[in-house]
Amino acid sequence: MPATILIADDHESSLAGLEGLLSLEGHKVVTAMDGEMALTEFFRVQPDLLLLDVDMPKLRGTEVCRRIKSNPETLLVPVVLITALTATQDRIAGIEAGADDFLNKPVKREQLIARVRSLLRLKAFTDELERAEAVIFALARSIEGKDPYTQGHCERLADYSARLGEHLRLPAEEIKALRRAGIVHDIGKVAVPDSILLKPSRLTRSEQMILRLHPLVGERICASLKSFQLVLPIIRHHHEKMDGSGYPDRLRGKQIPLAARVLQIVDVYDALSTQRPYKPALSAAAALDVMKNEVKKGWWDPEVFAAFEELMRADEGEPRAKALAAAVG
Predict the structure, then answer these.
(1) Cα–Cα distance, 223 to 243 (Å, whole number)
(2) Residue 181 and residue 70 share a domain
(3) pLDDT, mean of residues 36-44
């Protein structure tokens, strides 16, 4: 499939020259004459690559780049800024805006083709990665969809574990991993028979042993995704306990990764405050009381639990907290 490339330049001769070169390479080319038109066309055609002249009317190329790169849905689209060789400040501004590459005026054909080919290969790789992640997320949600009692569980865990991570001032990459792990933490349940997964009563010991394999299965399913390397320990260890009585590795205390300790607090809270066939939903206060006793037993990290309590108190009376309470019954 030919790539779609958007070129934005207010000089007609430059625009026509770039369009001609890239059209000869077999690409579909869309053009814009100013910054505002570039943004409009960008969201209309959703190009694979964007070539931006820096000096354009209405919006400078650096500002167009900044807006595209600050949007999570478009930040992976490669942006090349076209600048004068001596325009050092433009290059600094472009780097700060998130530009992927630069071309000097006048643009040389060999450089243009080489840069475009390189960035399109990178875009194809990231597209493939996004598709793989989308399949993983869809599989995780299909497992959740089997049980009407767990509807919305993944989204709640993704939201609250990420917020708890922010509250604990975890690095941005770990917060991103928590958001992903909230969706896929139970993906290993794809290997658990429905007769066990949907059983309306307590599981037998043998059934529990089968269920307890799901963190290992989930880790194997996601292991091939390099972008999930920080997610894997969360998937594997979110059922460990601080006293070593959890599974699958019976880790103790700080051996359990901090991100896994964060997710498990939210996971336990959501399980307690959601109705199940064998138990009613607990109120927020009652669920926290149960968890507080479990902290005393040595099951959960007391510092992470204390931070979660703070977060819940901060949400009291807010629309978000009311929405969460409504969602969990």
Answers:
(1) 27
(2) no
(3) 94
DSSP H stretches of helix in 59-108: 61-69, 88-97
Q: Chain centroid to CA 193: how far?
A: 29
Q: Both tokens of residue 197?
A: 């997964």
d(CA 33, CA 53): 10
* CA pair distance 45, 6, nearest whole angstrom: 8
User: Could you say which of 127, 161, 184 is where a domain stops?
Assistant: 127
Q: Among 17, 64, 61, which residue's Cα sits nearest to residue 40?
A: 64
CATH for 84: 3.40.50.2300
Nearest to 286 by CA among 260, 304, 307, 312: 312
CB 179 within 8 A of CB 162: yes
Q: What is the pLDDT of residue 323?
A: 47
Q: Which helix (H) or strand (E) holds 262?
A: helix 258-272
Residue type (1 letter), 104: N
Reported pTM: 0.64
Cα–Cα distance between 191 and 180 in angstroms, integer?
A: 20
**Residue range 111-150, pLDDT digits in tens:** 899 989 989 988 887 777 777 777 787 878 777 777 665 6
- Supply the angle between the helices 153-167 and 258-272 in degrees, to the nearest 10: 130
The structure tokens listed for 214 are: 């799901």
